[in-house]
Each structure stands twice: as structure tokens, then as C-alpha cells.
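Quick one: structure for this chain?
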Amino acid sequence: MGDEVDGHEVDRSSAVLLTRRLAVLVGALVLASPGIAHADDDLNVGAGNCQVIKFCVDVGVGDDTPGSGGQAGGSQGGTDDNPSKVKCTYTKVDQKPPADHPVWEGKDPKKNDLYFRSCSDGGQDNPDGFVVVPTGQPPAPQVDPQELAQRAVDSMTLLGPDVASPRATGRYIVGVPMWMWVDQSPTTYGPNSASATAGGVTVTATAKVSKIVWKMGDGSVVTCHGPGEKYAAAYGRQESPTCGHTYTATSASRPAGTYTVTATSTWTVDWQVAGGGGASGRLLETRQSQMQVAIGELQVVR
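Got it. Here's what it folds into:
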């Protein structure tokens, strides 16, 4: 036989690799010693045997059905079925390690089951590990916290800017500074918060407008990092200190005699997994509002 490898060995290659990964996880913690149930000298993946580890599990990768759960001591595992996400296989470990084994994380083996979790995104190796769940309860699929954050955002009903100026009924003149501002509410400016929960994971997201980009209809674009300041007659013809624009041509030649002004708000959403110390991140959302603005000329009467 020498260096020859038959077809059966080739078919088992993925099972051998995955079992070795399992051995790496626990082998450093518990080495072979008197009283430990040793496997045969040869690694026999199909029979669920293993070496130099205190307990063993057949991870089931030899199953003909891709992604199906394997068996350990006759117990079925399961999979996470989301084609665009990481896929995980859970295999129940029936030969439980001692209660003081670190894999239990302090939980009582008499009240909990242990599963070996192996994940793959189809192209890269992903960390394997163990999952402890209450006895008789299947392991919950892993939840993508960013996906939960997006669910929370979707529940907020975020809207485009509530434009107070310019307004369709306003009277605006070429060469006179226009002050632009928006009214603020949780759905049009923020802050706005919501939470979403799945698989025992809760994510809280908080959204607030970080900037508004104004396309003025005359080719000009104005970016304002704030709601803008409300105009008062006492300001006269001063320019807005925070958000404004001055038209240099009338809108008389435009369709309906108006400029179409588009205000696009960027919502910055910061999210955090509940409990502290968990995952966190940031999402960006955009919303838009439009209005028609008439720009005239100042007529001099002699």
C-alpha cells in the first residue's frame, strides 16, 4: 500500500480535516491520561472515534447530503439554512465531558446538551466551537447582528427631510440669499431608536441625520451638516451661517416656472448588541424629499 491512497480515503478527506480541527480545539486542554477512553491507534472518522481528546464526535461530513447534520452517538445535528450567509452544522455530543471541563463554561451538564458547531461560508474556513443549550432544545442558528440592526432600522419609518424653507409658497428673488432649514422630528431628523431580537440576540440601533445634500435645480449642490438655522426678518439680506444658497437666474424659463429642489438626508445608524462588550457597527441610510421653488426678479418701478 505504501503511499497509495484509495478512493475511499479521498472521499473521507474533508471528514478527516474537520475532525482534526475538533481535536485542536480540545486537545490542548485535555491530553490522553489514565482513565481516559482512548481511540484505536488508527483514526477512524466514520465510527466516531478520536485520539488524545477526552470525548469524541463524528462530525458527519461524510453524509451524502451537503450541509446535513452528522451523528454522534446516534443523535442528529442540524444546519443553518441561509444561502447568502455562513452555513453552520451542529452535531450533538452524546459522550459528554466532565462537568469541570472549560467547554461547559460553568453550566451544568445534567441540565444542558453540548453541540459541536462547524461553519463555512462556501469559500473560507470559519471558526469551529462548542455550543451549550438546555437539554432537549436544539441549538439556535447563529444570528447576523448587522441583519438585526437593519431590521431595527426598517421598523423606525425613517423619512426624508421635513423642509421648512424653501417652500413652494415662498417668494424668492435672484441675488437675495435663501436660508434653508428643516423641521426636526424622530422620523425626519432623529434621534430615533429601535431594537430587534432573534436567536437570543438583541441589537439596539440609534439613527440620526448626519448631513443633508441639497440639489438646488440650477446645477448647484449644497451640503449642510445640520438642520439649518431658521430665518428671521431681523437678519435682512445676510447669508445663512449654516445652510443657504443664492440663485443667480430666475426660474421663469423652467418647466412650470420653478426649480425642482431635492433634499437628500443621510441617516447614520449606530448599532450595538445588548449586554455590553458585544458586536457593534454603523449603517448608512438615505431618504429624499422634493419641492418646487419659484425664483423671480426684483422689479424697479420708476
